[in-house]
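Same chain as my last thread, 259 residues:
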Amino acid sequence: MIDVQSQLDDRNVNIDKVGVKNVRYPITVMDRENQLQHTVASINMYVNLPRQFKGTHMSRFIEILNEFHGHLDIREFSRVVEAMKERLHAQSAHLEIEFPYFIKKQSPVTRTAGLMEYHCRVMGSLDQAGKHDLVVEVNVPITTVCPCSREISRHGAHNQRGLAHLAVRFKRFIWIEDLVRMVERAASCEVYSLLKRPDEKFVTEKGYDNPKFVEDVVRDIAVQLKTDPNVLWFRADVENYESIHNHSAYAYIERRKAV
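reply #2:
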């Protein structure tokens, strides 16, 4: 049969990324407490396409994915992108996996257990020179209390939920749980899936006693990462969904650490 994708193209334009997007697929994630956690991911797979080829072979991406079924986790990223680059005769390959990750978390006073969901993403690539790159990102819900509001108000202070994104490059394997904990330590207070009245009293008072601007949160995350010798690069940003304003407050820090 005629292979249309392999036919020549005369427009002389290279394509940086071409492939499949939003493939829903079961994966395995390293879980510090239970060793493994099974979840469902949304997967993007791309390769570059040299200017002389009309198209890439989309079915080969799914074939490669199926070959790694049952043991597709962060440890296999390098093998997957190598297979993509080889099978699709490409110079570079990219793999992005987004998935929900669940951590069992006890409330602070009554110790009532519940599952907290954290949206995570792992991005791996292999370039033309054979260099691998891997980035792990976690999205962590937090709560903050406004320092200005607390300072100027006679009664209470306004608070808000926020969402912090933390992405890192690292030398050795790093646990999702550790990244989540770094973010939660930087907030006014953590968010829980289940709270009883004594717990609600605790988190309300803890937040009030620990007011934070978005600027404070990203700086406190950065301070922790700057002293971690395992982290080579990080990007942290926080968006507060303001409770008394019709806009969000936002702060962003990105740093590459000296090797």
